[in-house]
Design a protein that fits this description.
With 191 residues, the chain is mainly α. Helix content is 77%, strand content 0%. It has 12 helices and no strands.
């Protein structure tokens, strides 16, 4: 049935993913790789296929460059491929390369300037790259985009504390508790 679904829509992500899993189960990972390559050749900007292929390559212990290659290709060809850029940032952060991750996070933010997940990731990447003031500015922007969420305020408090701005950290924690009175993490930090 998955073969039929894939024949009707070569970019059908669930069929592609399950057929790849079956190939691996049958000890034929090269067949799975060929499936992904064929779909990405036909649909080079298919973000979901690139994400699945990247995950497959990682599960098969592919090299770092092999794992990120499909994501880079989709990001180059599809400016709206935010999830591929997010995955690239996460791979580079995990590979201890915050400078490259930061450049990619900035590209993602340019592509989706009001996407909270992208903005949060940009702030995290700025923090990991040692750019605390920029991360604070980014998390302040996230707090304005998500005025009812305590998460940006908790992130701000953490950065204010790390940069020695303890009064601002307390202020951010108090604002987080005012939004969500049962917020245990913020209450503990205030004590």
């Amino acid at each position: 049935q998955f073969e039929e679904a894939l024949s009707r829509d070569a970019a059908f992500p669930m069929a592609l993913d399950y057929l790849a899993r079956l190939d691996v189960y049958e000890k034929k990972p090269e067949h799975a790789k060929q499936r992904f390559v064929a779909v990405l050749e036909k649909y080079p900007n298919n973000e979901i296929a690139a994400l699945s292929y990247s995950a497959f390559l990682k599960s098969q212990r592919g090299t770092f460059e092999d794992v990120v290659a499909p994501l880079k290709a989709v990001a180059r060809g599809n400016p709206a491929a935010v999830r591929a850029r997010i995955a690239l940032v996460q791979f580079h952060l995990a590979n201890n390369d915050p400078k490259t991750a930061l450049a990619i996070a900035q590209e993602a933010e340019s592509a989706a300037p009001r996407n909270p997940a992208v903005i949060e990731l940009l702030g995290q990447t700025q923090r990991d790259a040692g750019e605390l003031n920029q991360a604070i500015t980014t998390y302040m922007r996230l707090a304005s985009l998500l005025p009812e969420s305590p998460t940006p305020l908790l992130l701000l408090a953490e950065l204010h504390n790390a940069s020695g701005q303890h009064l601002k950290a307390v202020e951010a924690l108090k604002r987080a508790v005012s939004l969500q009175p049962n917020l245990v993490a913020a209450k503990r930090a205030l004590v």
